[in-house]
Design brief:
By secondary structure, this protein is α+β, with helices and mostly antiparallel strands. The protein contains 4 helices and 5 strands; from the N terminus they run H-H-H-E-H-E-E-E-E. Strand 4 and strand 5 form a beta hairpin.
Length: 158
């Protein structure tokens, strides 16, 4: 199992545009890997992502389901869907797999510049830009009272 996870880790890192996202409980403790292998496969990009999420969550026990999901029953507006097509490295088009880490994020209520109240989810992480630079920041989602996500953006920051 350890060799499989280690090989999977190397494969995903070689194809990834999203850096490891730090888990509340270090992965190496669950999977028996050396401390240097503190990564979460669901935060990586790759053609095997769906299978990886299931295997890693079951084998390592690192992905916990939230009681009430921010994304349950939510949809994306046409504007957000169009922005998501920007290509790898563009700050609106990060991998959908980031949503698996909502339990590591913070939900708050904000009033937008339009005077409308929104729920906002911010998930800390890192992202590789189109210029090839890694940025630390938050993956930000905002949804309205109709459960429509009208804001989805990686925001670099301290």
């Amino acid at each position: 199992q350890d060799q499989f996870l280690l090989g999977l880790h190397r494969l995903l890192l070689s194809t990834s545009r999203v850096r490891p996202i730090i888990a509340p409980t270090p992965v190496w403790k669950h999977a028996g890997l050396p401390k240097t292998h503190n990564w979460i496969a669901a935060g990586m990009v790759g053609p095997v992502l769906g299978a990886v999420e299931g295997v890693v969550s079951e084998a390592a026990g690192i992905i916990e389901e939230a009681e009430a999901s921010f994304f349950e029953g939510a949809g994306y507006t046409d504007k957000v869907l169009q922005q998501m097509q920007g290509g790898a490295g563009e700050f609106h088009s990060f991998p959908e797999a980031v949503t698996a880490f909502e339990a590591s994020g913070t939900v708050s209520t904000i009033t937008g510049g339009d005077g409308v109240v929104y729920q906002q989810l911010e998930i800390p992480g890192s992202y590789l830009s189109t210029s090839g630079n890694w940025y630390d920041g938050v993956f930000q989602f905002m949804k309205d009272s109709n459960n429509m996500i009208n804001h989805r953006l990686f925001v670099p920051g301290p």
